[in-house]
Amino acid sequence: MHILLVEDDPHIAEGLCAGLALSQCTVDHVDRAAAASHALSVGHFDAVILDLGLPDQDGIDWLRQLRADGNDLPVLILSARDSVSQRVAGLQAGADDYLLKPFDLRELTARLQTLLRRTSGRTTHLIQHAGLVVDPDLLTVTLHGSPVSLARREMMLLLAFLHNPKRILSAEQLQDALYGLGEGVESNAINVHIYNLRRKLGSGIIETVRGLGFRLGKPDESA
Ligand code: CA
């Protein structure tokens, strides 16, 4: 899960980045509304965590503009504005969820997972695909009932495909999903992770679409 964190309080941001990394999230952090708009224009994200009191623009106005531009990315507002009318204003501006500061990291993570499930149209939290069952909360994978051990990046890569079951994902999009925008990445890193996923789940699990990227396929029947 690739999260854009828009938060100008450095202490909150630092804690969130560290905490979300433990939940296998890649987090890009910006502290201005303008920087958030720029990040969305260059990277692929699964959700936004949005503070409202930002130095260059109110988060509500930024969100309203985002929706007016037709962007339906899941947005969770994280704010100390605790009156009912403020929360209603946030939801009316287009937020999918609203969490009050101070917050519990576990609750935030659970709500993010719920948001992603809702937006990808699933009702149970287990992701099932052709004999493969993935629990995105516990980060466990079984194939035809047998547990499969995946490294962290392999799990993130698999989830990126499962969250976009019909899309062709380019190497750049996959890189964005696995690594932060500023992180240095070995040029063949994605290929190595795909090789490992195929080795563990069967060569058909990721299909190569020549010249375009990769697409979710089917795991081995008998693995
Ligand atoms: Ca703030």
Mean pLDDT: 90
Count of runs of 4 or more consecutive helical residues: 8
Rg for CA atoms: 18 Å
Structural class: alpha/beta
* Biggest sheet statistics: 5 strands, parallel
Question: What's the helix-strand series?
Answer: EHEHEHEHEHEEEEHHHEE
Cofactors, ions and other ligands in the entry: calcium ion
Instruction: Walk across the major sheet and give the strand order.
Output: 2-1-3-4-5
Estimate the strand proportion.
Answer: 15-25%
Describe this structure in words.
It contains 8 helices and 11 strands. It has 223 residues and is an alpha/beta fold. The strands form 3 sheets. Strands 2-1-3-4-5 form a 5-stranded parallel β-sheet, with helices on both faces. Strand 8 and strand 9 form a beta hairpin. Calcium ion binds next to loops.
Summarize this structure as a short list of keywords or feature phrases.
40% helix, 11 strands, binds calcium ion, 4-stranded antiparallel β-sheet, 223 residues, alpha/beta
Itemize the secondary structure elements and their pairings.
Layout lengths: L1 E5 L3 H13 L3 E5 L2 H10 L4 E4 L8 H10 L6 E5 L4 H9 L4 E4 L4 H15 L7 E3 L2 E4 L4 E4 L2 E3 L3 H12 L7 H8 L10 H13 L4 E4 L3 E4 L7
Parallel strand pairs: 1-2, 1-3, 3-4, 4-5
Antiparallel strand pairs: 6-7, 7-8, 8-9, 10-11
This protein binds calcium ion.
Calcium ion (CA) binds next to loops.
